[in-house]
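@channel sequence for tomorrow's demo:
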Amino acid sequence: MCFSKVAGFAFVWDDKNLIAKNPFLYQPDTLWRAFQSGFWELTNVPHHIAMYRPVVIVSYFFEKQLFGDDPMGFHMVNLALHALNATLVGLLAEQITRRPATCLPAALLFLAHPVQYEAIANIASRTDLLATAFGLAATLCWLSTHVSQSHEKAFRALGIFFLIPALLSKEAAVIWPVAWPLLRAARDGKFRLRIQDAIPLVVLGGYTALRSIVLHSVVPLSTVEGWQGPWRLGL
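structure tokens (generated this afternoon):
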């Protein structure tokens, strides 16, 4: 794989405070506290940026039990997630274009593109990888509702099921349900909103309320110094 050398990297930058030197990852109640705390609150260096990403903390917790202080295991998980995302991108390209031949080129382009390097090399960027993986899975399910009427509700439910952990991995995942009608239009050749398209918006409302309650803030991240904007999804 293009980024295979990443497996031998050490903990760098935020990896150290989030994982290597984080005593909270040895405490069982962290699994529950992750959903009741900001992203940086469960470290020894609380951060001024308001983030709510409990799914990422949970992933760090389980990997800490498996790999301890060995960064290789964490990097291998990042590599596996990147490979999964490339596969999902290929499947999405095939579904939108309705041409199976587009699957492999799209997957390979995503897999090898150098813009992916930061998200893969930094374990702290697991946020991008998880939000992308869950978001792509949700998108594939939501766009598959046209396959058959008998499975339409099941695919829609799966889309919401995967959307929730995407939102709980990174705030930028709010863009996924907004993109669904556009992707469907690209596939079908016409733009049409459906009543069902309101369902993920309700989920977004619930997520926003939960995030506001936990962080005691509704301030957009773009207003915080150092935030690079919601467009950085890892895609």
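heads up for whoever presents: The chain has ten helices and no strands.
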